[in-house]
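Reply to dn_fold:

You asked what the input looked like. This is it:
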Amino acid sequence: MADTRFETTTGNGGETHQQAPAKGSHGDADAHLTTNQGIRVSDNQNSLKSGERGPVLLEDFVLREKIFHFDHERIPERIVHARGSAAHGTFEATDDLSDICKAALFKKGTKTPVFTRFSTVAGGAGSVDTPRDVRGFAVKFYTTEGNWDLVGNNIPVFFIQDAIKFPDLVHSVKMEADRAYPQAGSAHDTFWDWASLMPETTHMLMWAMSDRAIPRSLRTIEGFGIHTFRMVNQAGKSTFVKFHWKPKLGLQSTVWDEALKLQAADNDYHRRDLYEAIDTGAFPEWELGIQAFDQALADSLDWDVLDATKIIPEEMIPVRIIGRMTLDRNPDNFFAETEQVAYCPANVVPGIDFTSDPLLQGRLFSYLDTQKSRLGTANFHQIPINAPKCPVMNFQRDGQMQMTVPKGRANYEPNSLAAHGEDGGPRECPMTGFATAKGRADHDETGEKLRIRAELFADHYSHARLFWKSQTDSERAHIASSFVFELSKVGLEQVPARLVANLRNVDEDLARRVADGLGIDLPKMAKAAREPIDIEPSDALSIQKNMKATIEGRQIGILIADGSDADEITTLKSAIEKAGAKAFVVAPRIGGAKLSDGKVLKADGQLLGSPSQIFDAVAVILSEDGAAVMAKEGAAIQFVMDAFGHLKAIGASETAKPLLDKAGIEPDDGVTGLGDDFLKAAARRFYDREPSIRMLA
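and this is what came back:
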């Protein structure tokens, strides 16, 4: 039943406004949204900007209060991105960027220390590593000109277009306020109620329901800066850029059943994987690339580059690789470094600048405020992990936990103390200091103070359609099935149909598959605020089209038991390690197994505690007697059954066949012997196997 206290309208950018009726008495105080000072709010969807596409204004007390209160809701863990893992490393510039950027770190050959933190978004610090969720990808560059923080995600777009909606997004996706569950998951009433009323979320929902949200490893995710930023060269010329991190190992994801079982097998799966890779010298690497374009190109697009719910396909503007990041040192102390590191998108160096993206503008305020709240002091920048590795000179003094001991009395400027023989302190420098890039005086980035979105922001479906069309058939089945699963957890009757009505603007087949999976009638298509357009599919948006056929950096499980052939094990382990992967021996007992040569080989893990979901492929080396015993062991049957169900390669000795038969394994290209055919198969997943083993939407 509709709430008659409110009228629903659509704004200039297609955003949903629920408002007190204009012709009502306005005497119902409970129906009117106010600030904490009791001041009624006229627009809870848009920040106050200077012109339609201009920067957000500091005077917007509604935005500042809303974000300020949100930043201080929970202490001391992060409001979002609470569960994270991090590592030290180095960024090396591999291309000369002087044509578009004057930042010192981009001079070819320059090496810059970094500290990179990966995280989930919705869960608390004690949640698990592998839920369906966005992954944070934040890099702190300790440059010679100061710290630059590139704070992004593994998905190139976001749910919202304006930062004033961020508290609503997070409140809806976090644990429900009355019952404090579910933890670390979006499959519940409040998130989908909110998302179904916010068509601008549609593109991000497509990514979040895809396999991008269930990565195999933090080492196999892409990273994105999300927003359009600016680069500025020595002459002051400005160029728009979007940032991309490309993993050396290629993209890899799990399948949904595998992700669920990983949560049970190892709550710390991603954290352990990252730590152990670095600890063993298999250092994770990413290439940093940019999409660079000018104002003319931006003006030629059918969408707005300031809209964080949109991308620019790589086929339209190829990614230019400009550097390489290698993570080669684990933190010495988790709390001191990973927990206390404070990222802020406002931390930029000369040569990198902002745009008027309203989501970015809000983040510039929010992050600094929340760091003070979480770390308890305005001096959080003095914590070693946050401290710049270049000189810091200013007149800021005192405050809680002040660690420096300034000398003299120069805590202000201008001053004439130096003329009297005292230290007068530092001064501004117009030549080398940070200078904001000039905006456009001829466009709609200045003008009246408005709570409004640019008209192009109203297209909420074209890029979601682009994403859908760019996937493989298997990936589309996963997306549709994810929507079905999530919406099946929603108890609010109107919500699933409302969301499916939005999806009809993306693709009729997608909407029909979700409706059929839920067992509901296909609802009437939701009215689009701006008619969607068709954009050429982009292979760069597909995980499966960007996987690398390699086992480098991956882990292969080898199941053995008493009587297993010693030579076969030795030969296979050697071949796996030569290919750059890790061999992990699994046995019924952690003490190992007595092999065919009479020697005992100690296991790396016990069968019950080392299920096949923690491996990228598995091999089974058993004698006839060993296979007969394992065919009666539920954990062994499940080991190969799950490997097959999770579309992985299975290599097996001839004598191990009874175990595979008991597990119902049907031969295909991914079920091999133990030779080169297994190593070749282990380099990929077998998605064509999936329709024969599970029903998908």
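The CA atoms of residues 163 and 359 lie 4 Å apart.
Hope that clears it up.
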